[in-house]
Structure formats: structure tokens, C-alpha cells
UniProtKB/TrEMBL annotation, chain A:
Role this protein plays: The pyruvate dehydrogenase complex catalyzes the overall conversion of pyruvate to acetyl-CoA and CO(2). It contains multiple copies of three enzymatic components: pyruvate dehydrogenase (E1), dihydrolipoamide acetyltransferase (E2) and lipoamide dehydrogenase (E3).
Domain of life: Bacteria
Reaction(s) this enzyme catalyzes, per UniProt: N(6)-[(R)-lipoyl]-L-lysyl-[protein] + pyruvate + H(+) = N(6)-[(R)-S(8)-acetyldihydrolipoyl]-L-lysyl-[protein] + CO2
Subunit record text: Heterodimer of an alpha and a beta chain.
Xref: PANTHER family: PYRUVATE DEHYDROGENASE E1 COMPONENT SUBUNIT ALPHA, PYRUVATE DEHYDROGENASE E1 COMPONENT, ALPHA SUBUNIT BACTERIAL AND ORGANELLAR
Protein name per the record: Pyruvate dehydrogenase E1 component subunit alpha
EC number(s) per entry: 1.2.4.1
Pfam family, one: E1_dh
CDD domains (alphabetical): TPP_E1_PDC_ADC_BCADC
Organism: Rhizomicrobium electricum
Cofactor dependency: thiamine diphosphate
InterPro entries to which the protein is assigned, alphabetical: DH_E1, PDH_E1_Alpha_Subunit, Pyrv_DH_E1_asu_subgrp-y, THDP-binding
Keywords attached to this entry: Oxidoreductase, Pyruvate, Thiamine pyrophosphate
Automatic annotation (TrEMBL), chain B:
EC numbers: 1.2.4.4
Key words, A-Z: Oxidoreductase
Gene3D superfamilies on file: 3.40.50.920, 3.40.50.970
Source organism: Rhizomicrobium electricum
UniProt feature coiled coil, ranges: none
Pfam family, one: Transketolase_C
Identification of the protein by name: 3-methyl-2-oxobutanoate dehydrogenase (2-methylpropanoyl-transferring)
Cofactor: thiamine diphosphate
Record's keyword annotation contains Cytoplasm: no
Residue span, Transketolase-like pyrimidine-binding domain: 4-179
Enzyme class, first EC level, given as a word: oxidoreductase
Length: 335, 337
């Protein structure tokens, strides 16, 4: 087996190294998710979004680093903390926000809600509310890639809590056995709802969880978008090269509650604040851009201003858009 | 007697049983240190210790299966599945093992397991946090299925379930946790404290499995229902002025056929109501039982009021939920002939 850590910049099917434009795009993409999620939180507080709503704030570097390393045609599948993933794939913030408010213009016509959206156009395969369910589904997508010889790779995201579901290990075994082009991205944000990693996991190093199936894994600083991108680029090249599946463990952190009604009794405010202060993916990366003279403070402000406009428009759209007609209730149950 | 919400009553049942029987263990996702998503297990770990009340990793198939093994070896596990919508990974173990070990071992082994799980809609939970899967369990021989509708019953039934030597699926109507929700989603819910069923003794008591209760006495038509729909049915009766008798089944399997027959023979008319999807729902079984046992007493076709045959939608909660209006229509139809 070749070693995924020694893959060099390669042939036509490799992700190019980042340049100043792509780096600024990283910043933009992360900030878009941050502002979108802040707005979703506000709308929720105003009663315009109901039910479950899991914000991605704090974890933006993971999805942005990975998404920017993909090639066209690669697929993404994830769980319910999915707004960031959808925006990163290029789904329209208006359609995502309108799904949150349950409107006909939402990606699932308002019938899916925050956790259940899809987009064939951007190769986003959902949005899954059942913890762990997306992992074997992603394995199946990868199987189809191999069968069709389309050269695409599937990213199957999961939380570190989901990584304890039995079907994850069934997936690792199948993926290795059948040599499938899939990367399992474990977003280790240290908590599954109110339960910390230590209270639920005998092996808390999730990148090692494929060892007995010979699935290689790498631990990545998921708060550093460049590190994520680099790790993603190498992993994609390895997997696309026909070497079978890989696991990337992203060490990250969720700032907000699990969902919107989280009593937050399982960690201290200080813990959250100290991560924000020291490790915030957007602040850190913004500073780097400025230090390296790739952008000025003013440039970053302009990006923020543009994003705020986009997000405000999405919110207005999602508030104004009509609710679905009740006749829609029975559509799409069966063909 | 203290006034308790359904959450407090369930907590009290677990507390009483942990104190009474050293073989009782309480575990599940987020239930120990955190105290549970709906706070049903709050404080129990602190009081009874980590060996009696503990967190499990996320993995319903494994945690339920381990509980079955514990039960077969003489322990009395009470597991929580955080939402009924997450029970499906464990379904194989429930059906093929828990429900069958007594029969398969010719009575040598049995599984005194209780699986508690919040079910039902009305909280904007959408597709994966609102389902009512009771019929998937009532269809399985070797299981008991229980659904309380108020704090007093919740505690007494949970104690009976834990003390029962067979596996019990204990479905908790989550919309009733904090008050007797009657389907009027635009009105504030009266707190349990104002309801007489919130008077819950602090110590041990049992409400027997297999016994229905009359939630509202009446003579015009019988409503057979359970869980949240009990309160919806009472509201529909009050609002229409139709003198309905609301029978709260409390245990679906084994169902209290005597109570059903008594009421339907008296009224001669019957409405069956549940939140779950209509087709092959538990209501179908109730209709069959009523026509088998009460055919010559029926004066009109039995009416069913249920959820639509669709997944539980995010945007149409109150179109989907069979509220007092739909129930009132059902009552009127049952009185037509
Ligand atoms: C099968 C199943 N079990 C339990 C749940 C309830 N639940 C939803 S999210 C969650 C925690 C998952 O944590 P993790 O995988 O770490 O993802 P994170 O929320 O941290 O992004 C739990 C227990 C569920 N949705 N599905
Ligand atoms: Mg997590």
C-alpha cells in the first residue's frame, strides 16, 4: 500500500496548490458560512425558523478546506449539521434559508427542514438526521463511482459521536474490501450533544479507527483551513489514485449549542471562549492573509460587507417566500 | 402530594426503581452526566452513581442488544432511545432477540427490559424527530407496548414496565411532557400543575399493564385512543358538545379488550384515533377487534382519525397532526347514520 503522507503534486487529476485567489476564496467561503449561521440563529430566535437547527459556527475551516480541494464531480454527504456543507458546495443561500423557514422555494420544498436538503447539481447527497446513516450511503456512492469509472471521490462526513455507530465499521470494511474511492471525514468537535469524547469513546483518536481494516487515517488541525486543504488534497490524490478509502480526523470545535435549545450544562463558557480567542478559524486565517500581504484589513472588510448583503437577501427571501401549498403534502412519497 | 410534570413523574419512577432494586440499571445516549435531552434522567447519576446510571456511546443497535444480554442474565435494564425515530437500528435486536428469547428457550430465559423513548409530533421535529412507530412493535409477538397520557399514569406504568419480566416498549408522548397539549397549537398549553393527574405520589405505586382508563365518560360515541390524542379527543368532545367517551388504552399490547367492548357496546359508535400514519396503524387492529366483538352493537361504520400516509413533514406540522378539528369531523361522521 502506498503511503498517503508522501503523495506529491501530481498529474492532471490532482488539485492544484493554492494561490492568492484561492486563499482569499477560503476566507470568503468560511465567512459566508459564519454569517449565514449567525443569521439563521437570529431568525430562529425570532420564531421564523422552527424545530431543529444545528449551527456550524466554529467548524467552517473543515468544510471549506475540503471542498476547495475537490474536483468537479466529487460528491459530498453529511449529517444534520449541514448548512455549511451546502453553502460550500455552492448551493444558493436563499434556497437553504427558505428550507429552514419551511417555504416552497426551499431545497426540499419546505418539507425537509434544516437537516434534510439535497442538490444533484452541486453533488450534495444530503442532509441526514439519523446519526451515522450517511456513512454507508457515502460508501455506496463511492461504489457507484468505481463501477462507472467516473474518477470521482465521495466525502462522507460524520461527527465523532456518529463514529461510534456500528454501521461506520461495516462501511470501513466494505470500502477497503472493495477498494472504494471514499474519504471518511470525522469532524471531531469534542462533543456529541451533551456527551464529551472521553465519556463515549474507548479510542478517542478517530483517525486510528480504520487501522484494523487497513484504512489509513490522518489527524488534521480542523481550525486551520490551509492544513485542512493540504490534508484533503493529499488524501484525494491518494484515494483517486485507486488506493482505497482514507479517514481524515478533523480536530475542531462547535461554539454554539448542539441545536437551538441546548442547556449547555456540559461545558464551561470559559472553555468555549478560550477556543474562540485562540483558535478561531476565520480570525486566524484573516490575520495570516494580512501578515502575508495577500489582503489588507480593508479588503477583508469589503468581503464581509458583500457577504452580509448576500445573507440579508437570503433571509429576506426566506421570510417573504410563500409557504408550500398543502397539496404538496402528498407529493414525492412514491414515484 | 407534589404536582409533577410528566418529565418529573418519569424521573421519579426511575429514581424509585433504582433505589428499590439493585438490578435496575438506567442508560442511554446523553442520559447520565447530561441528564437527558428532555431532562427525564436529570440528577439520577449524581444520586445513584455511575454504575447504575450511565451514558452509552451513540449506537442504538449495540446499546439495546447489550441491554438484552444484561436482562437475560438477570439484570433489569431500562434504556432510553433519545427519540423513537432512532430506534430502527435496534429493531433487529428487539424483534429477533428480545421478543423471542423466552419462546426460543422454552421459558428458561427471559428479558426484563424496558425501552423508554419519546415519540410523536407537535414539536416541529420534522421527518426524523416526530414519528409514531407503535404499530411496528404491537405487530411483534413477545413484546408489550405501553403509552401513558399523563404524569400519574406515566410513573405508575413505568414502574410496572420495569417490574415486568418481559420486554416493554415504553413510548412517551413528548408533546405531553410539560402539559396536556390538546392540539390547539396556537394557544398556550395549561401546565400539568392545573391537571389532577399531576398529583403523583412520591414513593412506589403501580398502574397495571393491560388496563385501559376512561379519560372522559360519555354515551354518544366511543373514542379509542392513547397518548397525546387522548387530550385532543377530550377537547374535540368539549368543543363539539358531542358526549364522547374517551378510552385511554394506556397499554396497546396486551390491549384491554374488555374495556373496549364495554364502552363500544354502550355507545354503539366508535372512532379510533392516533397520530401515526393511517395505513396498517394500530387503529386498524382496533377496528378489527371492535367489529369482531361488537359488530351487532354498532350503529355506524367505525371512523379512523390518523396522520396522513406520508413522512412527517417539516412545513405542514398542523396539517399533518390530527388535531381537534379532524377529530371533531370523525365524531360527526360516526354519528351520521
Ligand atoms: C440514530 C440516531 N441516534 C441519536 C440521534 C440523536 N442525536 C442527534 S445529534 C447527536 C450527537 C451527534 O454528535 P456528533 O456525531 O459528534 O455530531 P455533532 O453534533 O457534534 O456535529 C445525537 C445523539 C440521532 N439523530 N440519530
Ligand atoms: Mg461532535
Amino acid at each position: 500500500m502506498s503511503d498517503p503522507s508522501v503523495v506529491e503534486d501530481g498529474g492532471v487529476n490532482a488539485t492544484p496548490a493554492p494561490n492568492s485567489t484561492t486563499l482569499k476564496k477560503f476566507y470568503h467561503d468560511m465567512l459566508l458560512i459564519r454569517r449565514f449561521e449567525e443569521k439563521a440563529g437570529q431568525l430562529y430566535g425570532m420564531g421564523l425558523i422552527g424545530g431543529f437547527c444545528h449551527l456550524y459556527i466554529g467548524q467552517e475551516a473543515v468544510v471549506v478546506g475540503m471542498q476547495n480541494a475537490l474536483l468537479p464531480g466529487d460528491q459530498i454527504i453529511t449529517a444534520y449539521r449541514d448548512h455549511g456543507h451546502m453553502l460550500a458546495t455552492g448551493m444558493d443561500p436563499k434556497g437553504v434559508m427558505a428550507e429552514l423557514t419551511g417555504r416552497a422555494a426551499g431545497y426540499s420544498k419546505g418539507k425537509g427542514g434544516s437537516m434534510h436538503m439535497f442538490s444533484a447539481e452541486t453533488h450534495f447527497y444530503g442532509g441526514h438526521g439519523i446519526v451515522g446513516a450517511q456513512v454507508p450511503l457515502g460508501t455506496g456512492l463511492a461504489f457507484a463511482n468505481k463501477y462507472k469509472e467516473n474518477g470521482a471521490v465521495t466525502l462522507a462526513y460524520m461527527g465523532e459521536g456518529a463514529a461510534n455507530q456500528g454501521q461506520v465499521y461495516e462501511s470501513f470494511n466494505m470500502a477497503k474490501l472493495w477498494n472504494l474511492p471514499v474519504i471518511y471525514v470525522v469532524e471531531n468537535n469534542r462533543y456529541a450533544m451533551g456527551t464529551s469524547v472521553e465519556r463515549a469513546s474507548a479510542q478517542p483518536d478517530f483517525y486510528k479507527r480504520g487501522e484494523s481494516f487497513n484504512v489509513p487515517g490522518v489527524s488534521v488541525d480542523g481550525m486551520d483551513v490551509e492544513a485542512v486543504f493540504e490534508a484533503g488534497r493529499k488524501a484525494l490524490e491518494f484515494v483517486r489514485g485507486g488506493n482505497g478509502p482514507m479517514i481524515l480526523e478533523m480536530k475542531t470545535y462547535r461554539y454554539r449549542g448542539h441545536s437551538m435549545s441546548d442547556p449547555a450544562k456540559y461545558r464551561t463558557r470559559d472553555e468555549v471562549q478560550s477556543v474562540r480567542d485562540r483558535k478561531d478559524p476565520i480570525d486566524q486565517f484573516g490575520k495570516k492573509l494580512v501578515d502575508r500581504n495577500l489582503a489588507s484589513e480593508a479588503d477583508l472588510k469589503v468581503i464581509d460587507k458583500e457577504i452580509r448583503l448576500v445573507v440579508n437577501e437570503a433571509a429576506e427571501f426566506a421570510i417573504e417566500a410563500p409557504e408550500p401549498d398543502a397539496s404538496e403534502l402528498y407529493t414525492d412519497v412514491l414515484a | 402530594m407534589p404536582a409533577m410534570t410528566m418529565i418529573q413523574a418519569l424521573n421519579s419512577a426511575l429514581d424509585v426503581m433504582l433505589a428499590k432494586d439493585p438490578d435496575v440499571l438506567v442508560f442511554g445516549e446523553d442520559i447520565g452526566y447530561f441528564g437527558g435531552v428532555f431532562r427525564v434522567t436529570e440528577g439520577l447519576q449524581k444520586k445513584h452513581g455511575q454504575t447504575r446510571c450511565f451514558d452509552s456511546p451513540i449506537g442504538e443497535a449495540g446499546l439495546v442488544a447489550a441491554a438484552i444480554g444484561m436482562g437475560a442474565y438477570g439484570l433489569r435494564p431500562v434504556v432510553e432511545i433519545q427519540f423513537a425515530d432512532y430506534i430502527y437500528p435496534a429493531y433487529d435486536q428487539i424483534v429477533s432477540e428480545a421478543a423471542r428469547i423466552r419462546y426460543r428457550s422454552a421459558g428458561e430465559f427471559h428479558v426484563p427490559l424496558t425501552i423508554r423513548t419519546p415519540y410523536g409530533g407537535g414539536i416541529y421535529g420534522g421527518q426524523t424527530h416526530s414519528q409514531s412507530p407503535e404499530a411496528l412493535f404491537t405487530h411483534v409477538t413477545g413484546l408489550k407496548t405501553v403509552i401513558p397520557s399523563n404524569p400519574y399514569d406515566a410513573k405508575g406504568l413505568l414502574i410496572s414496565a420495569i417490574e415486568d419480566d418481559d420486554p416493554v416498549i415504553f413510548l412517551e408522548p413528548k408533546r405531553l411532557y410539560n402539559g396536556p397539549f390538546d392540539g390547539h397549537h396556537d394557544k398556550a398549553v395549561t401546565p400539568w400543575a392545573k391537571h389532577k393527574a399531576s398529583e403523583v405520589p412520591e414513593g412506589h405505586y403501580a398502574v397495571p399493564l393491560g388496563k385501559a382508563a376512561t379519560a372522559r365518560a360519555g354515551s354518544a360515541v366511543t373514542v379509542l385512543t392513547y397518548g397525546t390524542m387522548v387530550h385532543v379527543a377530550i377537547a374535540a368532545a368539549e368543543e363539539t358538545g358531542i358526549d364522547a367517551e374517551v378510552v385511554d388504552l394506556r397499554t396497546l399490547m396486551p390491549v384491554d379488550i374488555d374495556a373496549i367492548v364495554r364502552s363500544v357496546q354502550k355507545t354503539g359508535r366508535c372512532v379510533v384515533a392516533h397520530e401515526a400514519t393511517l395505513t396498517s396503524g394500530f387503529g386498524a387492529e382496533l377496528c378489527a377487534l371492535v367489529q369482531e366483538h361488537c359488530f351487532w352493537h354498532l350503529e355506524a361504520p367505525i371512523q379512523r382519525v390518523a396522520g396522513w400516509d406520508t413522512p412527517y413533514p417539516h412545513a405542514f406540522e398542523w396539517d399533518y397532526f390530527p388535531g381537534p378539528k379532524r377529530l371533531a369531523d370523525g365524531l360527526k361522521r360516526a354519528l351520521e347514520n
